[in-house]
Amino acid sequence: MKNRILIANDDGIHAPGLAVMERIAATLSDDVWVVAPDFERSGASRSLSLADPIRVNRLGEKRFSLLRGTPTDCVIVALREIMKDEPPTLVLSGVNRGANLAEELTYSGTVAVAMEAATMGIRSISMSQLFHKGDAVKWETAQAQAPRVIEALLALPFRRGVFHNVNFPDVPPAEVRGVRAARQGNWARIGVDVHGRTDARGFDYAWLAFFHEMGEPPEDTDVGAVRHGFISVTPLHADITHRDGLAPLAAALAPLGAPAPEAHG
User: Fold this and answer.
1) pLDDT in tens, 80-113
2) Terminus of the chain with fewer CB atoms < 10 Å: N or C?
3) Rounded to an integer, what distance in angstroms lies between the CA atom of residue 22 and that of residue 139?
4) With contact defined as beta carbons under 8 Å apart, do 34 and 22 qualify?
5) 252 membership: H or E segment, kind and range
């Protein structure tokens, strides 16, 4: 079956990574649609625009931007309105500028795009290209390696709600050591810094920025895979239940017994 592809992202309609993803998608299909935010929405996670209208800007026959829209808005508007008569068979998110690994996944608008599409019953893949601050982004690595990764993932049975998160290491294409199935890992250290500033009128403002340290992560994790020059591929879904905590929780709650019946009259 011919793929009908929707591309969305969180870096915005003019992001270089979006252009890279369009070139990747063109190797898989000649029916490629783009619906992306009008400006960068990194860190938007799965947020929705529930209190403001969403305005759709048509840039071409199959190319749209959402004014003030979030990454998740883009998927919903695409599937429920723009492409409702012939929905896509595949949603590609990215290519994101920078990693989407470990604990930071819950912040990611790139990951949120794929999660929303998978929840709505569409096969989806989020993709990110690592880089070191101050260095040029090696977009050529994602562009060269992504098509074969996507083809391999398309061969898997689709399970509603499940999607794949792909991260390309910060190495040239020829130095990629392979592709690894990896569990979500942990950064050695992660957080968000507040950088205080004062504008020209004397008013204070702040920039928020991630910081993280890789350390020596296990090789079976997403962080460990890219640390050693592999492409990491991680199956994800929206269920964030801590299953190991269920049994001790049930034991702790057992003495409380059944809830007392409500009094009537």
Assistant:
1) 999 999 999 999 999 999 999 999 999 899 999 9
2) C
3) 12
4) yes
5) helix 246-253
